[in-house]
Give the backbone structure.
Amino acid sequence: MRAPSAVSRWLDRAPAPLFTAYVVMAAFSTYFCMYAFRKPFAVGTFEGEVALPLAGALSLKSLYVIAQVLGYAASKFLGIKVVSEMPAGRRALAIVGLVGASEVALLLFGVVPAPWAALCLVLNGLPLGMIWGLVFGFVEGRQTSDLMGAGLASSFIVASGFVKTVGKWLMERGVSETWMPAATGALFFPLLLLFVLMLAQVPPPTAADEAARTKRAPMDATARRRFFRAYAPGLVALVALYVLLTAYRDFRDNFAREIWDALGYADTPTILTTAELPVAFGALVAVGLVMAVRENRKALMVVHGLMFGAAVLLGVSTLLFALGLLDPAVWMIAVGLGLYVGYVPFNCVLFDRLIAAVGSVATAGFLIYVADAFGYLGSVALLLYRDLVQPDLSWLDFFLGFSYVTAAICGALYLFSAGYFWQRTQPHVHDGASRQS
């Protein structure tokens, strides 16, 4: 086993606020940079249609989005095994290797003609789907995991809009929409290496961390099946929730340009970034509130309460916009908050607190990847439904209708999940000593 570096030893002795700030910066920045290899292509228009046998025509952009999501979804299924079994010492190298492979796929995307270039986006999504779990492995199982996880999760709220703004900036300077994704990735790769190196210095959780949040260990197939069977009704409800939220998030994200254009912001490309800043801040504050709750069972209920409130915000704000009582930009920010206050906990505090509340030795990465795998399949199904069943409905009108559906179903499932896990968990107060303060 390799001896800890000087930075690792320093972090092990660092005061809790400094340690937390370091981990948040390294994890946030690593995942932020990954988005430069995943999302810039979505700012392209990719005009044209592709005829599908026995199914009608699919827009070229929808084909590209579906192709990448299929690769990403397949990666999530692979991640159920790969991420949950990955030794901690190999995570950093795996992140660099997987992102590097995705950049090669983007280079091929610039060469291969349409519609066959869609295969390159499948290859692009295939490695990227495992990055979240690898990065989250450095964060989970610590006394400050709630704050670290919220900081990490805020990265994908602001990163998507930012890298698409960079992509559009490159196209305005003459880079074609087929080469723009690879060019954007190349700009961010040196930064990715720096932040992964920082992440690799993070020491493992301390004994006090394990006492407060339950020990985290790799899970083999038997352990994964045992854990899922023990809490199947609640986990199925959470996965169903996540399928809806992922489909909603992916649609809002991949067709943000089309939605904003329909709302009258075609000449304001910076709106893709600026509108997400209050969303990220609001989601970060909401999830950060969970840190104030030490007892894990109560914290689990607080998370459910926040997510239920988010579903209400999503539905009510959409109704007010449809009635002409809400400004378009305010509505997009409101539904963004409703989405991400419900979505972000899945990727940071929800499963981390759930594992701690039930007292099982497990890894949050396993649960995140089960939810993610099915979530992205739901995203593919939604895009196929929109293009093949309701092709004449505008992107904005489809998004409005789907907002109502998401709010109603998610609200009901949040209540069921909260009731189930309140009954299945026993009160455990994990006070645990804090890292040196």
Remarks:
- DSSP finds 19 helices and two strands in the chain.
- The beta strands are 49-52, 56-59.
- Residues 261 and 267 are 8 Å apart (CA to CA).
